[in-house]
Structure formats: structure tokens, C-alpha cells
Sequence to fold (457 residues):
Amino acid sequence: MLQGVERLDDLIGPRESGLTGATLGEVEAAVDAVDLARLAATGGHFAAVAREGCTVRLARTIGLPLRYFVAKRHHGPYLVVSDRIDSIYDYLCELKIGWQFDPLYTRMIPAHHLVEIDQVGCPDPNPRYHRFFDPEIARGPREVEAAGADYVRAAYDAARAWIAGVPDGERIAVLFSGGVDSGSTFLIARKALADLGRDPNLARAYSLDLGGGADAAQAERFVRELGLEDQWERVALDGATPDLEDAIATIEDYHPLDVECAATSLLLLAAIRDRDPSVRFLLDGDGGDENLKSYPLEDSDLTISSVLRNPLLYQEGWGIDAVKHSLTYSGGLSRSYVRTHAPARKLGFSAFSPYTTRAAIARAAAMPFEDWFGGDAGRLDTLKAEVVYAGVETLTGIKMPVFPKRRFQEGAGGAYRGWKVNKAWCRRVFLRQWEERLKAVWAPFAERVSGNATPTP
Fold:
């Protein structure tokens, strides 16, 4: 075993989005020192990596994906780190060791954890996980109005911090369905811009309409009721069909609802990019459903009890110690936020959702859901609207229009039922895409370098 050699290739570097409470350099130092209290004291999003000898440390929040792959070189194991599976693969191919790669052997850092990996080999020990976000559960206000005020204020503070980092005069595109989360995000963004001394009309809302879309119709009603028609644009793409296979390649995942959402997003983002090539910044309301548990139980194998007794289920999945936890993908929104991040990055946007931040999640976790629901799963359909409506009114004085909840891909209209897919199909496509890419490096006579081969000068 060679000592003192580099055991880390970080292909992406440290990143932040709306970070508050520390500089990115201070976050890196906290990761290196396993200073969980320092990480916990920050707001916004970060992803950072540090190395000390043979130990590599990685940490992230929901908004910035971070994954790694253990490769073997002549000096032993080392980590290749990136935000995407394919970038790790491409890098290993450049080193002629792409034959070592399997996409399902990449590992996603679970959100809200610092992970330590000792690179010693024969075999490498399991990673050590340290949680740096541990919100109080059901300890907040009992009144919906007060809880909503706290929640929307946290989202506003996060949005304002992110917008403060956007150059003054730059436009901000808001993905807007007219629903509770996107509607509140639009109003929060306008208030944040005004409070920063900027023009609130720099935030422009866009709604996708694939033909008869319910979202576009309610979005039009929303802006008309508030006199904001000039700051809204209907993106009409009648007859367009989302490219599901491209979405799978983009998000590198096969969960059908995320694939459908990403495919629909790619259509909308491409249209925004064509209409306004200069816009770089993007806001959406992703995370709002997870925070307020606003998902129909009939779409899953969950019960109201499992949702209430696992407070961060929708944000983190079942947890890192659970049988159902995916090492390749993490869980919950920690996994699925790639449906927002990857399409935005592909089309040149810097995306942010204030509802994915730990401050907003903590305010939601503090809500007394068990008392409010009283065992009635029907409250899942109405509670989010009540909470956010009250919060927006307290923050802005605006009585926000409220409409029935629906998924983005369904609300976009068109022939959604005609391209709705299941997990088996998505997984087959995912595996086929990677099988085609791996043929060259897995072939018997493909050019490759043994992990024991010493590089020549």
C-alpha cells in the first residue's frame, strides 16, 4: 500500500446555492473537521468534499446532488466525485479504466449528512454517516395561521438570500402552474426583489400548455385576479409530446413520476431558453408537496400512520439504515430533486426552490400534523393550501388564489394519459441506455488499463 498519494478526484468542486451563515470555504473547512454544528448553522444549499490522508469526507443538502464511485488504481482505491453518473463514467474512460464502472455502483450522498469514507482497500470499510440536520418535530405553533406565517417566512428568507446573489437587473424565470407552491414562490420572489430595492417585475412566470392544460388556465386566473398578467407568459406547445427517454438520460433515474415531471420540464425550459436566451436564473416551488405531506396515499404503499411517524419521509426517504434505502439514489426529495436540478443545468439555468431549504423543512417538521389530521387522510388534500395561503397573506398582505392540486405533468395538458409510464418501462430504458454505453469498455478486447498498472511518465 502506497502512502501519501492522492485518493480523490473531485470533478465538480464545492458548490453553493443561496448559502447563508458561512462562506463556501468555511463549509469546506467544516466538512474537513467534521464540524456538524457549523454545517447545521448554515442556510441554503451546499455540496462539499474534503480529504485527510486516506479519509474522504462529503456532505450535501437537497438542492445540490453529490455522488461518488470507488475506483482502483496502482496505489489502491480512490474516489471519483461528481454530481452526475455519466461524468464519472466519462472520466474513468479517459483513464482507460471504464471497464471498472457500473452505474449502479455509484453512490449518492444522502442529503443532510456528512459521509466519511476510509480508502484503505481489501476491502474498503463501510462509510460512516453523520447527520447535521435534526429538526424538532411537532413543537411549533398549533394554529394553522401562525405555522403558515413561520413556514412562508422561512421560504421568503431563503428566496431573498438566493436572489441577493443574482446580479441586479437579471431576469428570473419562475416555473408557474398557478398552484399553491409555484404561486407562493412567484409572490415571494416579487416581494424579495422589492425589498432588495429591485424591480419585482424581474420575476417572470411561465406556464406550460400542451393543449387544454388545466395549469395554464388556472395560472391565467391567478395572475388576472392579482393584476399580474404582464408578468406571465403561457408557453403553448400544442401537440408536443415529452421525450421520456431523454428525460431518463437527463436525470439518470427511472422513478416514473420523476421521469414524467423531468420530461415535461425539459419542454418548458427549452421553450423559455428559445424565447429568452439571456435568462440564467430559475425559481420553482419544488419541495412544497413533500414538506406539507401533500401526496395522495392511493398512489403509493404508504399509510397515514407511516407518513406521520416518519417526519422526514418525503424529504429523505426511509432513512440511511432502512432496507429500502437506495445507496445509488438516496431517498425522498434527496433523490428526486434531480428532476429539477438536471433539466435546469442541461439547459443552462441555475435553479433554486426556497421550499427545499432546511429552514423551510424545519418549519414544516415543527407543525403538529398528527393533531391536525386526526387520522383523516382527507386532510392531505386541503392542509397545504390552508397553511401557505395564511403564510402568504401574513407576509405580503395578498390573498393568494388557491386551486385544486394536480401534478405538473398532468396539469400541462395534452395527451398525458397516452405517455404516462410505469417503473418497469423506465428501468428497462435506463439499463438499455447504459448497456449501449458500456459495450465499448466492457468488450473483451477493449483498450483498458489494469488497476495494478503503474502509470508511465
In short: The CA atoms of residues 163 and 193 lie 7 Å apart. The mean pLDDT is 93. The first strand starts at residue 8 and ends at 10.
